[in-house]
Amino acid sequence: MTARDTDALGWLDAQEGAMLALLEELVNIDSGSYDKPGVDAVGIRIAEFLAGHGIPVTTIPVDGYGDALKASVAGSGGGNRPVVLMGHRDTVFPKGEPTRRPFRVVDGRAYGPGVADMKAGLVMNAFVLAAYHRAGGAPVPLVGLFTSDEEIGSPACRPIIEETARGARAVLNSEPGRPTGNVVTGRKGGVFMHLEVLGRAAHSGGNYADGRSAILELAHKTVTLHALTDLDRGTTVNVGLVSGGQSVNTVAPRVTCEIDLRYVTPPDRETAMDRIAAIVAGSTVADTTAHLTIKGEFLPLVQDEASRALFETYARVSAEGGNPVTGEFAGGCADSGFTASVGCPTLCAVGPVGGKAHSPEEYLEVGSLVPRARAMAETIAAL
After folding, report:
1. Phi–psi pair at 90, nearest 5 degrees
2. How far is residue 289's CA from residue 315's CA, in Å, rounded to a whole number?
3. Which residues are 193's β-sheet partners?
4. Can you name the residues that pair with 240 across neighbouring β-strands?
5. What is the pTM of this model?
């Protein structure tokens, strides 16, 4: 380890209070995925912090969602291939949630909307970038990528993520560390779909036989869709939202639903999607039709040899720092699937440790902020 690395780590060791202060600011900013002003406000605050440490930040305009940000720290080795520190600024929470339950710390845990998923990861990435810039540069070039729409499948930022990862040495995605303290080496992929079923309206008392119930047809389809679930293979299909009908005394002419497919490997996706297409094309109620639209999609994080080597490096430096970790598989999706899919070595959930994401009980282990930042910095040094 060089003197530069030692300087960076020494500075990080003293930053827990400053990290918490920035985290409080970010948590108390509304930043639901569809709240562009709020997501951009989080980005502005991160950019201010980085600029205050002399780190240049580029804004990539995004229509309809928050803009993407890229920050760069020069490296003395590794050519032009950077290590990417990645994180998303959006949360799942409705407008006003930070007002209802603002950031607080109780008994060593921080609480608030998005505190672990993943504003703590954003703070950690920003501080690691600052640590190396203050020390005179990193061992390899670093890029901080701060995206805006992960919670809804990254419809706008996916091309930016993939482009950044294609030329990168590695990606460290700072989703929250697991409650066990472990990191994530594999994730499911996900496909999010909208299904519309059309029937024929009729008076439910006067001429019932003339109607064709879209609701009844969807009920049949729902049972068949759920039957595609294979827990042993890790494939699940869930109809999570249903809306439709005209009135209680009308045979329903239209109904829609939202479908969630989760799978482990790309072949599993193709098998499931073929079966879903067949269910959509067929019908049990005569004269009904259906149309399926893919609204969003995550790719799976499948560990290859290069990603395994990256994990082994991270695990080694973590253990040397007194925090042994192992790799876990997660059913949830993340942007790390996009980076792995373009062939970039990827490790996920290297952010500070937390749990109960997407709920009012979401928490962050405050004591993990500095150790996880150190593990990231030491992994960078080892690359």
Report:
1. -85, 155
2. 53
3. 259, 294
4. none
5. 0.92
